[in-house]
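Problem statement: downstream parser choked on a complex file, so we are re-checking the raw output for the 3,4-dihydroxyphenylalanine run. The parser issue turned out to be on our end (a line-ending mismatch), but while we're here, posting the original submission so the record is complete.
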Amino acid sequence: MLTDLDKLLGSCLLEIEQCKSLKKIEEIRTAILGRNGKLTEKMRTLKNLSDEDKRVVGAKINEVKANIIEKLNSQIAKIEIKELEEKIKEEFLDITMPVSVKSSGFIHPITKVFAEIASILSGYGFKFEDGPDIESEHFNFDVLNMPSHHPARTMHDTFYLNAPADDYGCKLLRTHTSPVENRAMLKNKPPLRIFTIGRVFRSDYDATHTPMFNQVEMLVVDKDVGFAQLKWLIGDILKKFFEVENLKVRFRPSFFPFTEPSAEADINYSIINGKMKFGVGDKWLEIGGCGVSHPNVLKDGGIDPNKYQGIAFGLGIERLASLKYGIPDLRGYFESDERWRETFGFSPAEL
Ligand code: DAH
C-alpha cells in the first residue's frame, strides 16, 4: 500500500511538472484530488484497514496530498509567470522604432519650418509674441523710425485698406513682422527675448515674390548686447536650423531705418553635384536682415536707450524652407496643388 502511494506520488508529480497550461492543471487536480480522484479513492480504502494500518497509511496519504498540493501551487505560479512573459513579448512595443503613419494629409513646409524655428528659439528662452495681420501705419512704420515723410515707406509696396484712418493712421496689411517688436516692448519690461512668426503682405508677384509670405522676427533687449551677440546668435540659430555645424555667417552692411548699424546676414554654400551644400565653399547667400535697434525704436517702446540696447533680425520663412528642403518656386507654397503638397509636404509624424 505504502509503495503504491509512493508510486502514485511519483507519477502525479511528473504529470504536474510536465503540465504547461492553467486549464490542464485544473484537470489534473480534479483527476487526483477530486471526488473520484486517484488519491481520494485511496482514502476511501482506509476504512477496510486495521486501526494500526489506518494510522500509518492515513499519515502517508496526508503526506502525499500535501506534496501534491505544494507541487500544484508551485507549477501554477510557474505557468502564470511564463504566460505573462509570453504576453509581454507578444504585446511589446518598441517606441524607438521609426513611426510609419499612413495618412492622406500633409504638413505644409511652412508649418514644419514654423515648428522648427519655434523649437530652436524656445531653446534660448525666447517667448512667442503675436501681432495682428491688419496693422496701422503707426505700428508698421512710425514706431520703427519711419515717420510719414520717410522714403522707406514707399519701398514696402503696402496694401492699404479702404477703411477710415484713426489716431494710429491708415489701416494696412503689415508689410513685415517688425511691428510686433514695439507691441512686445510695450507689453513687457526689459530684459526681453521675444520672437514672432507670421504672415506679411506686399504687392509683388513673381517666382521669388508672393503677395503674402511669412517672416520670423526676433528681438533681444538687454544691457550689454550688441553686434557681436547678434552675429553669434544668428549663426547659432542657422547652424541648428540647417543642421550644419560649420556653417559660416557673414554680415554685409545694409540699411534699415529701425536698426543702426544694420546688416544683411549671408551664409556660405557651394553647389555639389547640382545640389546646394551649406557650410562648405565660399559662395554666399543672403538669408535676412538684422541690426542693433535704433534708439528711437527703444524709446517708442518705452525703453531707455541709455540703459538698454536691442538686437533684432527678420528672416523669410519660405526662403528658409526653400533652401533647407530644395523647394524651387515660391508660388507653389500657396497654390493648394495636391501634387505640390505630395512632393514637398511632410508626414504628420515628422512634425
Ligand atoms: N523688417 C525687415 C524686412 O521685412 C527685416 C528686418 C531687418 C527685421 C532688420 C529686423 C531687422 O528685425 O533688425 O525687410
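For whoever reads this later: The first helix runs from residue 2 to 18.
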